[in-house]
Amino acid sequence: xxxxxxxxxxxxxxxxxxxxxxxxxxxxxxxxxxxxxxxxxxxxxxxxxxxxxxxxxxxxxxxxxxxxxxxxxxxxxxxxxxxxxxxxxxxxxxxxxxxxxxxxxxxxxxxxxxxxxxxxxxxxxxxxxxxxxxxxxxxxxxxxxxxxxxxxxxxxxxxxxxxxxxxxxxxxxxxxxxxxxxxxxxxxxxxxxxxxxxxxxxxxxxxxxxxxxxxxxxxxxxxxxxxxxxxxxxxxxxxxxxxxxxxxxxxxxxxxxxxxxxxxxxxxxxxxxxxxxxxxxxxxxxxxxxxxxxxxxxxxxxxxxxxxxxxxxxxxxxxxxxxxxxxxxxxxxxxxxxxxxxxxxxxxxxxxxxxxxxxxxxxxxxxxxxxxxxxxxxxxxxxxxxxxxxxxxxxxxxxxxxxxxxxxxxxxxxxxxxxxxx
Length: 422
Fold this sequence. Notes:
11 helices
């Protein structure tokens, strides 16, 4: 195995990779200012903050010599041409949206690092083209469905989801129109399998493993599966100062029991994580016994059968809890994202490059759900993680080191040449 194919450009120096990393970090700082909530980083699908980020991304992509386009799902692409118009396209990138009160690097760092790699190529052209992709929706915060961007690209987007509503009552269809796009063109966002050469997603780890092993980067072997269940617990409103305790049907107290049941179930199975991170209480007033509470249960495991078994157990436990309290339970939705092993060939090539560049090799599953899991069912896909010192994820405490970003950029750069030499 050789690290690189014949190059028409001089290999960048260590200083060049570090300079590229510093530029990526500075751009992450700039992007963090594009937020829906002052003082924190919140950038949801098809929001004004997302629109402003697209404007910024277009500039950076064009400055790198990329041809920019956007599909009807608001995924943005910067294309680096191959040697032929018939060349297949390799995808590099990650997502552009965030959770609420997010870190600065989740998603966007992977897109910016891919742009930096293209700039370092210095007009070198491969037999394959390269699309730097910024997926518009991965977190599913606004409409309650994750991976809308990559699902549109793979043709898996359900047209019925256009009727989904955000908290303000805006439908997904209306939001696409408001963004300046045409939802009727969503079918054209789907790529043909045969047009793609593969995909690598670069992402911050959002966990402590790489930091614990002093590894700047790591390679994902599989992305854990995800079950997301949206429930509504229904009780009866009453005056908090008048209604006797023994006559109450308190939906929030029932939800508290349900949340503890989720936690208890999550602790019983090795490798399982189960979380309730979102609740919506009605009427949400201090003087009123809560009438209803909606909550979202997030269940993950790298084994699909184990995850599904755990989800059934959690649902049964919640049903028992609310029945004992005389409350109602409605299942609003249940979404399943299967665990997905990543491509062994591309993963092996990343491992070879990491070792050849003198860095420790660390392989690990990803408990976080990523666009790579959607793409892996469509085209050969691998995933490179960057160390997160302290292990914080989905948090403003999220950190990365500039020297680790430099390593990741170099690994992706060398990977492209190694792929071209195959």
